[in-house]
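Deliverable D4.2, example record:
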Amino acid sequence: MNNLFANIPTKLDAELIEVLTQNQDVKIERIVSQGHSSPSTGWYDQDQHEWVILLQGQATLSFKHGVDIELKVGDHVNIPAHQKHRVSWTQEDVQSIWLAVCY
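Output generated by the structure prediction step:
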């Protein structure tokens, strides 16, 4: 048995992305951010849909079409394939823990 909140380093120099399980159609990741954001010069543009839920912390997702979504614990969003987006902000004093399902 594993725990999503276990084995997280206390200091993160970069965002931590761990694949928990995957097959040819689905990938499930744990992502831990602490003051991290996506590079300001690029957007995620994925071939798969992505459903994410924020399990701890706070974050802001920005979409290229001009919408920002502020997320708090329990908030989730489905991002269709090729909808350009980025993480524009995460809390610096609390680790933001995400669960992402790419399908």
